Amino acid sequence: MTYKLMAVDIDGTLLNNHNELTENTKNAIRLGVEKGLIFTIATGRPPQGIESLNKALNLDVPFITYNGAMVVFGKSRQVIYEQKLSQKDARDIIELGKKFQVTTMVWKDNGLHVAKLNERVNKYKMISGAEAIVTDNMERLIVNGVSKILWYDEVEKIEQYQQVIGKHLSGNVN
Prior knowledge:
The protein has 2 domains: about 5-80, HAD superfamily/HAD-like (Rossmann fold), CATH 3.40.50; about 85-170, Hypothetical Protein, Haloacid Dehalogenase-like Hydrolase, Chain: A, domain 2 (2-Layer Sandwich). It is an alpha/beta fold. The protein starts with a strand and ends in a 6-residue tail after the last helix. The protein has a 4-stranded mixed sheet, sandwiched between helices. It has a 3-stranded antiparallel sheet with strand order 3-4-5, with no helix packed on it. The chain has a two-stranded parallel sheet with strand order 1-2. It has 7 helices and 9 strands.
């Protein structure tokens, strides 16, 4: 079977258990590209969260970011597709986040916005490659749509919240 396109996630797929892009992986990608394979990354990370990988791979192909909500070209970061959350869905997610007392992080215009800094935000900043912008009014952020809203809490709690989300939101959110 001949593959024409390979889209891979980053954590645990492209990177090893030590968050490293190994030489073997880089060489395998290079070999595939030389043989005509289109190689890309599909991730929940924002565009800036894949910059260092793109420098190491030296690719200028569309990268799928924000779990599919934005597609950007690797080197130019030109946005070629974007699907923002509706204002209603964004508002509902933020309100439920307040109710559940989770750390809520909002991605708008490739900026990471939070209500307050805490340990979870600091951990996520390291993964995402972005500095957090503290805002006292999340409602203002959602007026023209946002790319992604992330809740950060204990896994067990998030799993419980997922059941509630399905009942309260439009089905456009996961």
